[in-house]
C-alpha cells in the first residue's frame, strides 16, 4: 500500500508524553528561529480562484469573476490520528456523492483541511502513514472530469517540526497531489476567490504568535480586490473565539486580521471555520457564524463544558483598539451536551483499558511510595539491601504531589489559576493517601517479616497490579471532578480515545449568491475493512464491513447573499 496503518495515538502513554513534551519545549524555545513563514516571502504569492470551469490563478489583469456559478466545497480538520477513524472520514469525503437525511450531496470539488493533519508530531513518515496513505487509499486517482483540489492550514501539531514536512507535502503548486486530490497552494496560507463574490482565506497563525509581515502583505494584496458586498470565509487554525473565554489573548491575532485587513474593504466576514477542538459546535449571530468542526479522525473532545454564550472579542481583551464586542449564542453541538456528559462517565473503564502503560506507571509510583512508607515505619527494621533499592519517603511524597500539580497545569490550560494549584495539590494528597492506605494493608500482612528480597518480589507480584488499578480509578475520578471546573477537560477525553462521533462540513455555494452548510456526522466509524472490487481507478481500496450510518449533525444552515443566517 505504500504506508503502514497506525493505531490511534495513546495520548496518556508515558513514552509518548515525554517525547511530545520535548518537541513542544523545543518548539517553544526555538520556534521563532524555525519559523519558515518569513522565508515563504520568496515563494510565489498566488491568489487562487475556484469554480466550475474557472480554476487557476487570479492575475492582476484578470476579469471580474462571473456570477451565477455554483461550487461544492468540503471542510475537515484534525485528521491524522488512527487509521480507522481517519480512513472512515477520508472514505466518505472521497465518495462521488452521499445521501444524508434525504439530501443528495455530491463530492466537494474543493477540500479544505483545517489543521492538525498529523498526530502527535509532524514528520515525513507520520504524514505518510497517518494522513497521506489513508487519503490515497480513499481516492487513489483523480476521477474522470475535473480533479478535486486540496488546501491545508497548518495546526499546532503541524508546526512541531518547524513546518518542514507540511511545506513538502502541500506547498508544491500544481505539481503536488494526495491521491486523487491536487494540491495548489504556494504558501502555508492562501486566498481563494469563489463564485458570486465569496472569498475563502486560510491564515497561518503559529500557536501564540503574531501574523508575519509577508503574510500581511499577501492578504493586503488580496483585500485590494475586495469591496462592499463581498462575503468572506476565514479558516484560522484554532477556534480562538472559544479559547478566549479562558485566555484573553487568544483572539488577538484573528481580531487584528479582521480589523486591519478585511474591515477597511467593506467586505463582511460571514463565516469562520476551524478545527483543533475535536467536535462540532456552532455559535451564531444574525450577521456571522463561528463553527468548530474538528471531527476528522482525532479522539473526541467534549461539548458539555462549552459556554452557552461568548463575547467576541472578549471585553477584557488587552488590545488597544479591539473590534466592538458582540455576543454569540451556542446554536448546536455534536455530540449533544447530554450525550457528552454520559460519555465522560466512561473514563472509569475506557481509561484503564486503553492506557495499560500509563496504569503501569501509576502502579510503579504507588509501589515505590508504599515501600518507602514501610521502611519509614518504626516497627520495621530494614536491612541495608532493602534501603538501597527504596526511595526516601519524603522524596516520594514530593514526586507524587509535584507530578499531580504538573498534570493539573498542561500546556492547554492557558493561564494558571488558583483552581489548577488546588486541584493538583488535592490530587497529589489523594494519591499519597492511597499509598498510606496500601502501607497499612501491607503492614497487616505477614509479608514484612520475610527475608529480603521476598517482600520486594511479593510487592511486585501482588501489590503492583492492584495499586495500578486503584491508581487508575483514582486518576479517572480526578479527571471527572476536575473537568467540572474546566481543568483537564482535554485529558478526560484524550485518555478514553473515543473514535466515534466524527464529521465534516459540505458547503454549497449557490447561484443566487447564498451558501448552504450541511454538517455531516457519523456516530460510529468503520473498524473492520474489506477490499473493494476494482471497478474503476478512483474507487476506494477498502470499504467498511458494516456500513457507516450518516446523519446531519444539525439541519442545513443557509447563509443568504445578504441578510441574516437562516436554518
From TrEMBL:
<feature type="transmembrane region" description="Helical">
    <location>
        <begin position="455"/>
        <end position="481"/>
    </location>
</feature>
<keyword id="KW-0812">Transmembrane</keyword>
<keyword id="KW-0472">Membrane</keyword>
<dbReference type="InterPro" id="IPR029052">
    <property type="entry name" value="Metallo-depent_PP-like"/>
</dbReference>
<keyword id="KW-1133">Transmembrane helix</keyword>
<feature type="transmembrane region" description="Helical">
    <location>
        <begin position="389"/>
        <end position="409"/>
    </location>
</feature>
<protein>
    <submittedName>
        <fullName>Metallophosphoesterase</fullName>
    </submittedName>
</protein>
<feature type="transmembrane region" description="Helical">
    <location>
        <begin position="357"/>
        <end position="377"/>
    </location>
</feature>
<feature type="transmembrane region" description="Helical">
    <location>
        <begin position="421"/>
        <end position="443"/>
    </location>
</feature>
Amino acid at each position: 500500500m505504500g504506508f503502514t496503518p497506525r493505531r490511534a495515538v495513546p495520548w496518556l502513554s508515558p513514552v509518548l508524553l515525554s517525547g511530545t513534551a520535548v518537541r513542544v519545549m523545543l518548539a517553544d524555545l526555538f520556534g521563532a528561529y524555525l519559523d519558515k513563514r518569513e522565508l515563504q516571502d520568496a515563494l510565489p504569492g498566488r491568489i487562487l480562484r475556484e469554480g466550475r470551469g474557472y480554476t487557476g490563478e487570479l492575475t492582476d489583469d484578470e476579469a471580474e469573476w462571473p456570477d451565477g456559478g455554483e461550487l461544492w466545497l468540503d471542510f475537515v480538520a484534525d485528521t491524522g490520528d488512527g487509521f480507522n477513524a481517519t480512513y472512515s472520514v477520508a472514505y466518505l469525503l472521497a465518495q462521488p456523492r452521499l445521501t444524508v437525511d434525504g439530501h443528495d450531496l455530491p463530492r466537494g470539488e474543493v477540500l479544505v483541511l483545517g489543521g492538525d493533519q498529523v498526530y502527535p508530531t509532524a514528520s515525513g513518515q507520520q504524514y505518510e502513514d497517518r494522513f497521506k496513505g489513508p487519503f490515497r487509499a480513499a481516492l487513489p486517482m483523480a476521477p474522470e472530469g475535473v480533479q478535486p483540489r486540496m488546501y491545508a492550514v497548518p495546526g499546532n501539531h503541524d508546526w512541531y517540526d518547524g513546518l518542514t514536512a507540511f511545506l513538502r507535502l502541500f506547498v508544491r503548486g500544481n505539481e503536488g497531489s494526495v491521491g486523487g486530490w491536487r494540491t495548489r497552494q504556494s504558501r502555508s496560507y492562501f486566498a481563494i476567490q469563489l463564485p458570486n463574490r465569496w472569498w475563502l482565506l486560510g491564515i497561518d497563525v503559529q500557536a501564540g504568535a503574531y501574523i508575519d509581515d509577508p503574510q500581511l502583505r499577501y492578504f493586503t494584496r488580496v483585500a485590494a480586490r475586495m469591496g462592499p458586498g463581498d462575503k468572506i470565509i476565514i479558516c484560522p487554525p484554532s477556534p480562538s473565539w472559544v479559547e478566549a473565554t479562558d485566555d484573553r489573548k487568544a483572539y488577538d491575532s484573528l481580531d487584528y486580521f479582521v480589523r486591519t485587513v478585511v474591515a477597511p474593504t467593506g467586505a463582511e466576514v460571514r463565516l469562520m471555520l476551524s478545527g483543533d477542538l475535536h467536535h462540532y459546535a456552532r455559535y451564531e449571530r444574525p450577521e456571522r457564524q463561528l463553527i468548530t468542526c474538528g471531527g476528522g479522525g482525532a479522539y473526541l473532545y467534549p461539548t458539555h463544558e462549552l459556554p452557552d454564550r461568548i463575547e467576541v472579542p472578549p471585553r477584557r481583551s488587552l488590545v488597544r483598539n479591539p473590534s466592538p464586542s458582540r455576543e454569540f449564542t451556542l446554536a448546536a453541538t455534536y455530540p449533544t451536551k447530554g450525550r457528552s456528559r454520559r460519555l465522560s462517565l466512561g473514563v472509569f473503564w475506557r481509561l484503564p483499558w486503553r492506557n495499560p502503560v500509563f496504569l503501569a506507571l501509576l502502579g510503579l509510583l504507588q509501589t515505590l511510595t508504599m515501600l518507602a512508607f514501610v521502611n519509614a515505619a518504626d516497627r520495621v527494621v530494614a536491612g541495608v539491601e532493602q534501603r538501597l533499592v527504596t526511595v526516601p519517603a519524603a522524596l516520594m511524597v514530593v514526586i507524587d504531589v509535584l507530578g499531580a500539580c504538573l498534570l493539573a497545569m498542561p500546556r492547554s490550560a492557558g493561564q494558571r489559576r488558583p483552581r489548577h494549584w488546588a486541584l493538583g495539590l488535592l490530587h497529589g494528597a489523594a494519591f499519597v493517601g492511597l499509598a498510606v492506605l496500601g502501607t497499612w494493608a501491607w503492614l497487616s500482612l505477614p509479608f514484612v517479616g520475610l527475608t529480603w528480597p521476598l517482600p520486594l518480589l511479593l510487592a511486585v507480584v501482588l501489590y503492583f497490579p492492584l495499586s495500578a488499578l486503584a491508581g487508575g480509578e483514582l486518576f479517572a475520578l480526578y479527571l471527572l471532578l476536575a473537568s467540572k471546573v474546566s481543568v483537564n477537560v482535554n485529558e478526560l477525553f484524550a485518555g478514553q480515545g473515543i473514535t466515534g462521533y466524527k464529521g465534516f462540513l459540505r458547503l454549497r455555494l449557490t447561484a443566487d449568491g447564498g451558501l448552504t452548510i450541511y454538517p455531516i456526522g457519523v456516530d460510529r466509524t468503520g473498524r473492520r475493512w474489506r477490499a473493494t472490487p476494482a471497478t474503476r481507478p478512483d474507487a476506494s481500496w477498502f470499504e467498511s464491513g458494516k456500513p457507516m450510518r450518516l446523519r446531519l449533525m444539525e439541519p442545513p444552515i443557509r447563509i443568504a447573499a445578504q441578510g441574516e443566517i437562516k436554518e
